[in-house]
Design a protein that fits this description.
The protein is α/β, with parallel strands linked by helices and 216 residues long. The chain has 6 helices and 9 strands; from the N terminus they run E-E-E-H-E-H-E-E-E-H-H-E-H-E-H. The N and C termini lie far apart (35 Å). Bound molecules: iron/sulfur cluster.
Length: 216
């Protein structure tokens, strides 16, 4: 037996950040295995199971193979593995600009304050709206982001209601993203403009470049 902290990892890869505030920057992605949710539009079902146990040293070593300061820890749901918190801290200590992509269903309160948290609010169209942990909104910092993946007009209206109810744009940046292949991006852009919303509309750059292939 060993006490070396380890994580189950699906993949570590180098790509362009496809969304959020650092979109377009070359970034190392560390994809942790496992997720307790089952969103209807999930594009990373291959990360639900399998993976390989890696020590934090091995992960840091592999991240260090690439010349970039941007690292994104994603999944699956990375916070489903407790040691994720230590990985985030160690990456920050190494001087990386770290972001965490999380479903919003698990507690984010212990995430290192240097990490940019990208926290989903799951819409009804995701099939997982009941999993939203609204207490997480109290732990958002100004550099964090709340993301809505919008499947249809009803999801849009629900998202606008949450935006207003929780005054989300006063807490941090708010992202509206169309569910790929499900919600027409141009229509969503039109709704955002018509309602003059204080949100950032985004499309997932990596899907326009590489489709839904793993490793991007
Ligand atoms: S939270 Fe993310 S990884 Fe988990 S099922 Fe939903 S989209 Fe997939």
């Amino acid at each position: 037996m060993t006490d070396t902290p380890r994580l189950r990892i699906t993949e570590i890869f180098f790509s362009l950040q496809g969304e959020s505030a650092t979109i377009g920057y070359p970034t190392v992605f560390v994809r942790l295995t496992g997720c307790p949710l089952r969103c209807g539009y999930c594009d990373t079902e291959y990360a639900f199971t399998g993976g390989e146990w890696m020590s934090l040293e091995t992960i840091l070593d592999q991240v260090g193979h690439y010349r970039t300061r941007y690292v994104t820890v994603t999944g699956g749901e990375p916070l489903a593995q407790k040691t994720c918190l230590e990985l985030l801290q160690r990456l920050c200590d190494h001087g990386y600009q770290v972001s965490l992509e999380t479903s919003g269903a698990l507690d984010v309160s212990a995430v290192d304050a240097r990490v940019v948290k990208v926290v989903d609010l799951k819409t009804p169209g995701s099939g997982e709206v009941e999993r939203n942990r609204y207490e997480n909104l109290d732990h958002l910092l100004p550099h964090d982001q709340v993301k809505f993946v919008i499947c249809d007009r009803a999801d849009y209206e629900w998202s606008v209601q949450k935006l207003q109810e929780f005054e989300l744009d006063r807490r941090c940046e708010v992202l509206f993203s169309p569910s790929f292949g499900q919600q027409d991006a141009t229509a969503l852009a039109g709704w955002v403009l018509a309602d003059q919303l204080p949100v950032r509309m985004q499309v997932q750059l990596h899907k326009y470049l590489w489709g839904e292939a793993p490793g991007h």
